[in-house]
Amino acid sequence: MATPEIINAIYREVFGRDADPVGVSARLNMTPDEIRRDLFGSQEYANLVATRERRRDDAAAKLEKNQERQQRKAEIRAEREDAHARIKTVLERYGLSDLSKWAWEQLTLGSSEARITLELPDQPAVQKRFGAVLEGRRKAGLPAISFAEIVHFERESSELARAAGLPAGAVTRELQHKWLVNNVSIAEVGRRFSLAEQRVFNTDPVLRAERARFGVTSGEEVWHELDPKNAFPAIARRFASAGLSAQGVRTGFGPLSRREAGGLVDLGVTEDQAAQGFGTLAASRDLFAPLAGTQEREITRETQFGAVFGGSAQAREEIEKRAAKRRAPFQGGGAFTQTSEGFGGLGRSR
Asked: What residues have CB less than 8 Å from 209, skipping those under 6 apart?
């Protein structure tokens, strides 16, 4: 026989609650096993089982729905990432990587890849990148070209520049766009490069040798032939130094050091002035060397330059004294000549 305590314990086991007074009274004469069989066969237990199954089914359905939702979210994100990767590739090709963030924001807001592609030309960065070319060609009455065609032209002309050995950045985007606005084709760019290389090849060998000695590369020479306005400021000092040194070689005076050539460049000496001055110095070479058996010292190149190009009175005086002492003035051909004022060179070049 069961006590109320046992009955309540079984109720809690089966139903999760204590037995009501009627239930306790009705089962005092039952054994624990009989009570359990009775409760398991009751409508309340059937209802409880049905509720539990329904809840379990609901939980399973909710879990499945959540899983489907998460899977769909993952699919959407993957689709967006794929679309963004494709858009990013295009942007990088156009040199517009900064718009990658904008494109992703548009995708997360629900825009399609097609819509973003259609809206791309209206972005300020795109107008800044390509607008000058498109507008320039429109004003010139030329056919419109695509972004891809502009990028292709930039890439191909840059490859031609590299093949010609031009310094990095020599063919600027500004120059490329200028060519496009003037309807210059890649074939024409290649022809211009070839002509520039030919002109460099035909340059006076003495001048080319001096340019090389002063660090001017063949690519820089081509750059100068192709675009002197933009090229020359970057290589001006080396070009000018080489040109002056070449005059020294041609006149027989000899090549200049970097320091000597740079000094003449700073004085503003032109190549014509250099040719005249070096001719004078070459013709007077014996005057500058000390005579054997005397205590004369060599008149340095620095003094020579000072007398001929720098307008140095002290340098001219030193040479004049040497000439007067030897009583052997040099005549004609730009040599030092004795006048009522003494020996004179070119004077200060500027």
From this structure: 246
- Spell out the alpha helix ranges (H) of 202-292: 205-213, 218-226, 228-250, 258-267, 271-283, 285-288
Q: What is the pLDDT of residues 31-88, one digit of tens each?
A: 999 989 999 999 988 998 999 899 999 999 999 999 999 999 999 999 999 999 999 9
pTM: 0.64
Q: CA torsion, points 201, 204, 210, 211, in degrees to nearest 10?
A: -40
146 φ/ψ angles, rounded to the nearest 5 degrees:
-85, 165
Q: Kindly list the domain boundaries of the chain, sorted by start residue.
A: 4-90, 268-350
CA distance 283 to 251: 9
Q: Where are the beta strands (DSSP E) in the chain?
A: 337-339, 342-344
E strand or H helix that includes residue 14: helix 4-14
Distances in Å between the Cα of 111 and the Cα atoms of 73, 102, 259 are 16, 11, 65
> 96-122 b/e with 16+ CB inside 10 Å = b?
beebeebbbebbeeebebeebeeebee
